[in-house]
Amino acid sequence: MITAMEEALKKGKEVLHLGKVATYIPELGRANPNALAIASCTLDGQITQTGDVGTRASIQSISKIASLALAISELGEEEVFSKVGVDPTADPFNSIMRLEMRKPHRPQNPLINAGAIVVLSILPYPDSTSRYLAVLDLVRKLCGNSEIVANEKVYLSEKATSDRNRSLAYFLRSVGAMDGDIEDILDSYFHQCGIECTVKDLAVMGATLANDGINPITQEKVLSPRVCRLIRALMATCGLYDGSGEFAVRVGIPAKSGVGGGIVAAVPGKLGLATLGPALDNKGNSVGGIEAMEYLSEKLKLRVL
Ligand code: GLU
After folding, report:
1. For 44-85, what is each residue's pLDDT tens digit?
2. CB neighbour list of residue 133: distance below 8 Å, 6 or more residues apart
3. Are 140 and 165 contained in the same domain?
4. What is the pTM of this model?
5. Same domain, 48 and 83
6. How far apart are CA 241 and CA 99, in angstroms?
């Protein structure tokens, strides 16, 4: 495993110059574009990691897995999928265009920004803090690490600059696609996006999803097998936004990316795989991470799609 991972790291590092760190959230612009780390966690709890494994990054859109899993667990899939669809989009993660064109005005899936914001709006918690803490608690359980917290600078940086997400949310409320206090809902969205993890944390999260909801390190039953299957299906079809099809062809594993540079992948019944590399392609996905995962998928025969 470690040899394959070191080779994958080399492949990934070779393409880092093709990517750029996200700067539309100013604090993310401080990330090191040359960093890349890879980790895996098998279902019997063995962790292997290489590269810049000390790097921490905000999980950004990877947090949408946790808020969605929480919503399905607490409200049921029927209720959640009456508010957001389950179809991939060919549009960027923060696109507003389709929301107006599609009738009813329902976000196309829960892993784009509009969908994730609607999912947060229906969670049965009274305010931003309780909503955020519930998502944080689930992220900690998925990763088996109770010390995970948000990077408050990243959270506040996004909160101060996110006109785009504000536009999405106010538009959605204006057409009846969501209700509630928009600023309060967005506050929990920005806060969950700022949750910070290492590549090892992300690999354990992937392993929990691959293991039908049982964390292979803590043995805790974090999610039901049904919820895990739904999440993996959405990861496979929508997890890398408008890059999901290409990722399915190149890597063939259900995965979710975030603009902090993380990618979490779940090979059902086998292992969790994660990469962390903040240099992104033009769709907001880690260039080095995709390259490394493609290599590992081929080398270790991990493809399931
Ligand atoms: N917080 C980010 C945003 O709303 C998440 C996007 C991502 O990771 O793809 O723009």
Report:
1. 999 999 999 999 999 999 999 999 999 999 999 999 999 999
2. none
3. yes
4. 0.97
5. no
6. 15
